[in-house]
Design a protein that fits this description.
Elements lengths: L14 H8 L4 E2 L1 E7 L2 E7 L3 E4 L4 E7 L5 H4 L4 E6 L5 H8 L12 E3 L5 E3 L4 E13 L2 E12 L7 E4 L2 E4 L3
Antiparallel strand pairs: 1-11, 2-3, 2-6, 4-5, 5-10, 6-9, 7-8, 9-10, 11-12
EC number: 1.-.-.-
InterPro entries: Flavin_Rdtase-like_dom, NADH-dep_flavin_reductase, Split_barrel_FMN-bd
Enzyme class: oxidoreductase
Length: 169
C-alpha cells in the first residue's frame, strides 16, 4: 500500500530539507581527479550526470569551499571515475577532509593530459572542462569526454541514506 504525501506539514526550503530529501535518492559514486601544480587533487562526487550524448558531456557539482576547488577552477582536464561496490574505502578516503587521497593506499597512474587515473574502477573518462556554472555555494562543472575505458568489472557503488552501499538482488 502506498501512502499519500502529507501536504499539511511541508518544510520551507533549507539546506537541511534538501539534504534530507536527497538521502532518499540513491546515487552512483564517482571520484573526480585533476593534476595540480602541487600534486593531484580529487574528491568523491554523487552528483555525476550524463549531460549530453552528442557531443558526449558529463556534469558534476563541487563546493567552492572544497580543497579541490582551486585546482578544478583552473584545470583544463579532469578525470571521472565510476566506483565499484568493492571501493567503499576509496570513496570514503576521497570524501574525507584532510585525507591523504593519493597516498600509498590509493592505486593510480598519471593518465592522458596529466589527469590522475585511478586503478580498478568500473569506468574512467578524461574530460575537457567546457564550463563552470555558478550554483549557490557550488559550481556545476561541464566536461566534454575526450577518451576513457568502460571495461571495469563489478557492480556499482551507491550512496544512500548517508552511507555507501551496494545494489541488492
Amino acid at each position: 500500500m502506498t501512502a499519500s504525501p502529507d501536504l499539511r506539514t511541508p518544510q520551507l526550503a533549507s539546506p537541511d530539507l534538501l539534504r534530507s530529501a536527497f538521502r532518499q535518492h540513491a546515487a552512483g559514486v564517482a571520484v573526480i581527479t585533476a593534476g595540480g601544480p602541487a600534486g593531484p587533487v580529487g574528491f568523491t562526487a554523487t552528483s555525476l550526470s550524463s549531460a549530453a550524448a552528442e557531443p558526449p558531456l558529463v556534469s558534476f557539482g563541487i563546493g567552492t569551499g572544497s580543497s579541490s576547488w582551486p585546482v578544478i577552477a583552473e584545470t583544463e582536464y579532469v578525470g571521472v571515475h565510476i566506483l565499484g561496490e568493492h571501493q567503499q574505502d576509496l570513496a570514503a578516503t576521497f570524501a574525507r577532509s584532510g585525507a591523504d587521497r593519493f597516498g600509498p593506499a590509493t592505486r593510480w597512474h598519471e593518465g592522458p593530459e596529466g589527469v590522475p587515473v585511478l586503478d580498478d574502477v568500473l569506468a574512467w573518462l578524461v574530460c575537457r572542462v567546457v564550463a563552470r556554472v555558478p550554483a549557490g555555494d557550488h559550481r556545476l562543472v561541464l566536461g566534454q569526454v575526450v577518451l576513457g575505458d568502460p571495461a571495469g568489472v563489478g557492480r556499482p557503488l551507491l550512496y544512500h541514506q548517508g552511507r555507501f552501499t551496494a545494489l541488492r538482488d
